């Protein structure tokens, strides 16, 4: 047993085991007691299928004397699942090796929530997650005013929602300092032009018009919306690039600093894209260049 414990510790170090923080330090609104659900899929890795206790999985910067920026990463999955490895831990490891503090958010899934909580749980978790990260800034060594958000697909919609709908607690705002939205869903309208599945899972079978407008992100942009980088592929059939284009136009119209990268090919759900042989393979380098230019 004496030999086994050091070996187990060493194995954890080698696999880059992350530190986990609960999102909520008190009661969880709209709480449920369902167990965490997950499965593994070839080429994608671990997928979360149910979450009851939201968490922040922390990846410290390498080297430790990294940047003062922190990024909360939100995987996508149509508000029904979370592509935990493909759009979460893979991205966090890249950013941590580039010197950034990276947190992957596991949030509750609207598709699994009770009807009265469906449209609230994910945004509550994202807002509270950003506030929680700001509260960890001093102990982990990053700046409270340089906490941003990155989201993929429906996770991009959640990241965008947190950007345009901040919450304040104790004089501290949850509004992120910057947003990085990767093939995001931003449109929620009567014609479901953004992504029908994400919209149905978030708003339910009988959509409330006011709630739909609340989550139609281009209509919610104002001059306080944080600087944003949008990443998309022209051939994305699942979440068409108009989602990024219309959000970009709204940012421009309100004088918000915005950058847009649209690649000719890449489709949807390309994740880190390290295996691709097309220009989309370099999108993460574009992210670090953008961050360096805006937040030195």
UniProtKB/TrEMBL annotation:
Residues 143-293 form the Peptidase S9 prolyl oligopeptidase catalytic domain. Keywords: Hydrolase. GO terms for molecular function: serine-type peptidase activity. The keyword Hydrolase applies. Pfam families: Peptidase_S9. InterPro entries: AB_hydrolase_fold, GDXG_lipolytic_enzyme, Peptidase_S9_cat. Gene3D superfamilies: alpha/beta hydrolase. One of its GO terms (biological process) is proteolysis. PANTHER family: AB HYDROLASE SUPERFAMILY PROTEIN C4A8.06C, PEPTIDASE S9 PROLYL OLIGOPEPTIDASE CATALYTIC DOMAIN-CONTAINING PROTEIN. This is Esterase.
